[in-house]
């Protein structure tokens, strides 16, 4: 699975979480949906193990508050049941940082000591595969991770992201996105206990065509593309490098997200997964909100660029020729983000990495 | 828990496993004991989850062959049961390297793709605490880890290790060792399913008084102490630094290992843990064996010292004053191990880090 945002977690020390405070807002704001799903599930207090998972957890920082709230509610509802909390991500994730955060050994506040009979685990298994044994998952959570594709389906000729791709290119991304989404849901369908719930909050394209960094102002991905094109046109990078730079992501529409649940012929529907709730929300870019308060364009630009760079840099880096010395690559990337910062500083209004998510709650049919 | 050997795993890239090939021999040689315990357990093929743990796993390299052999036998015996393999170590362990090794993404051969319906997890919870939910563990394994104490009980005035401590000092180590061992066993007693098994292979003192690196030739720990004393006496380190350098380890006797199982008043016995098998073995130092073949003292010295350094360096480093610049510390440690290497090169015979382990198989009383 090509999961560039995950690389950032390797920088450790909470860097990922600080750069993605907006991603935390997304999860925190949707916590009531998860609590409602728990109430609907109404798990019996029968002493059996209760398992929750966070799939694509990075360093666990963005979901920490939500997981704590939910597990305390699980503990209150079913005091007799041991709780297993399973954090999953790709093998290259910094699991050591994750354990330190969750076990309360860093300055990140953790719920760990406030929930008794709690057992924390990590898994390095991709969510495109089976993670926990069949029928043992009660509450599966995943946020801001499923847009990463397991395979890059095509080169995008005149853009860096599928949101700017030509029709046939885009269709290839949609098809890979469809297969990955169905595979992911099918594995979860098998893992869920009867009546178990899924809470999946993912980047998508909403009913008004909005998506991450494109909510009416200046499009972030178009800016990425314009600046990368500029570097190509002034000879800093080669046409080949420009061509080789594509985010391995698909932003699904609500229709694409929900089809596997609704279509009675779809294997996901047949495996017993049903949609309980679907909605889209826009969560405002915290840096743009902050700029409205302080009004300093230079400060906004300085604080805003790192949050973009945190998840996009590895994609631009991977487009560069393997033959380039590391120092040269670093200089190109610095130049690229410096130019983005200059653009924001010179004309700040309209820049914002607003989050556009599709929020789904699904359940496995009861036994 | 002070677990200095674990630090080495942070160096990643299989360094720990290569430096501890002897530790792998210990585990491989005792695999028949584990297979026998599995046969004695005779798990029913009832479709329920079967859980094995490796507690203190480092990068999983030393136990890989054994775990593969055992899980294939579990799969053969109970084809209907999903298998959970839980690797545990302290949070600072390199879990990313562990997942890469176990999932078959490195050049370490792994069993992962040869056992179906297998689910691999990691835990960063110390084995002095509860790791898996009560009653859910079927086969708990731990090797060469329980000699690390959760707390350093006393300073040893004239030696660096409890094997050379004065009587009262040694008693303090024995007491901390007793408490840690009982706590470890009690947690396992609660975790084990009825009829579940433990396989615990740990450094100890055998019936003839032998222990790691002390099997009739030149004592490794006495050599460590002599060289550290030399550095104190020539002013390279201070008397305070010498005094502050103690391995946080206790090497238990067979009597100490087995008492909690045998004594009917002991909480471990009362929790239902029974001893099925106890023995000690000496596994010869692979570098000394190799020296017998090639006969080159310089080569022996060069190949032998890294295996000692891999697990001992952090203890000597932690004895040095926090005020010393890192470069100075590195120079002192280089000098220390260089002197050890010179000793071996100049008079190789009798040097050997032979492994002395106590091998225990225990079971939880059936329901």
H/E order of the elements of chain A? HHHHEHEHEEHEHHEHHEHHHE
Quaternary class: homodimer
Give the tally of β-strands of chain A.
8
Which pair of chains forms the biggest interface, and how many residues does each contribute?
Answer: A-B, 29 and 29 residues
The proportion of residues forming helix of chain A, as a percent range, comes to 40-55%
Shape of chain A: globular
Radius of gyration of chain A, taken over Cα atoms and rounded to an integer in Å: 21 Å
Distance between the termini of chain A: 33 Å
Structural class of chain A: alpha/beta
Mean pLDDT of chain A: 94
Word description of this protein:
- The structure is a homodimer of 367-residue chains.
- The first copy, chain A, has 367 residues and is of the alpha/beta class.
- Chain A has helices at 4-9, 15-19, 21-29, 31-41, 64-77, 95-102, 167-191, 220-233, 239-243, 254-262, 267-270, 286-294, 297-319, 326-346, and strands at 50-55, 83-88, 118-123, 137-143, 192-205, 252-253, 273-283, 355-364.
- In chain A, strands 1, 2, 3, 4, 5, 6, 7 and 8 form an 8-stranded mixed β-sheet that branches.
- In chain A, strand 1, helix 5 (64-77) and strand 2 (83-88) form a beta-alpha-beta unit.
- In chain A, helix 4 (31-41) packs parallel to helix 5 (64-77) and helix 12 (286-294) packs antiparallel against helix 13 (297-319).
- The radius of gyration of chain A is 21 Å and the shape is globular.
- Mean pLDDT of chain A is 94; it is low at 1-14.
């Amino acid at each position: 699975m090509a999961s560039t945002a995950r690389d950032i977690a390797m920088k450790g020390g909470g860097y990922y979480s600080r750069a993605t405070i907006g991603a935390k807002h997304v999860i925190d704001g949707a916590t009531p949906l998860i609590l409602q799903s728990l109430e609907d599930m109404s798990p019996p207090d029968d002493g059996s193990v209760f398992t929750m998972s966070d799939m694509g957890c990075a360093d666990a920082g963005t979901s920490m508050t939500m997981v704590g709230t939910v597990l305390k509610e699980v503990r209150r509802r079913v005091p007799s049941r041991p709780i297993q909390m399973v954090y999953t991500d790709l093998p290259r994730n910094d699991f050591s940082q994750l354990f330190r955060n969750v076990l309360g050994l860093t300055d990140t506040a953790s719920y760990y000591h406030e929930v008794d009979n709690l057992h924390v685990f990590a898994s390095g298994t991709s969510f495109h595969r089976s993670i926990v044994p069949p029928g043992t998952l009660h509450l599966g959570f995943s946020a801001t991770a499923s847009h990463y594709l397991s395979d890059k389906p095509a080169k995008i000729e005149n853009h860096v992201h599928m949101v700017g791709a030509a029709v046939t290119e885009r269709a290839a991304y949609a098809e890979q996105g469809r297969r990955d989404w169905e595979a992911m849901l099918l594995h979860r369908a098998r893992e869920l206990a009867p009546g178990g719930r899924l809470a999946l909050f993912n980047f998508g394209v909403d009913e008004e065509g909005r998506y991450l960094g494109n909510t009416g102002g200046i499009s972030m991905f178009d800016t990425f593309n314009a600046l990368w094109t500029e570097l190509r046109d002034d000879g800093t990078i080669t046409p080949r490098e420009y061509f080789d730079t594509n985010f391995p992501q698909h932003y699904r529409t609500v229709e694409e997200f929900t089809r596997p649940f609704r279509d009675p012929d779809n294997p996901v529907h047949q495996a017993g997964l049903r949609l309980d709730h679907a909605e889209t929300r826009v969560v405002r870019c915290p840096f743009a909100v902050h700029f409205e308060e302080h009004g300093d364009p230079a400060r906004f630009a300085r604080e805003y660029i790192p949050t973009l760079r945190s998840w996009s840099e590895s994609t631009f880096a991977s487009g560069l020729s393997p033959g380039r010395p590391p120092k040269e690559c670093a200089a190109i990337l610095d130049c690229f983000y410096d130019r983005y910062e200059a653009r924001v500083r010179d004309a700040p209004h309209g820049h914002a990495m607003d989050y556009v998510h599709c929020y789904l709650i699904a359940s496995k049919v009861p036994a």
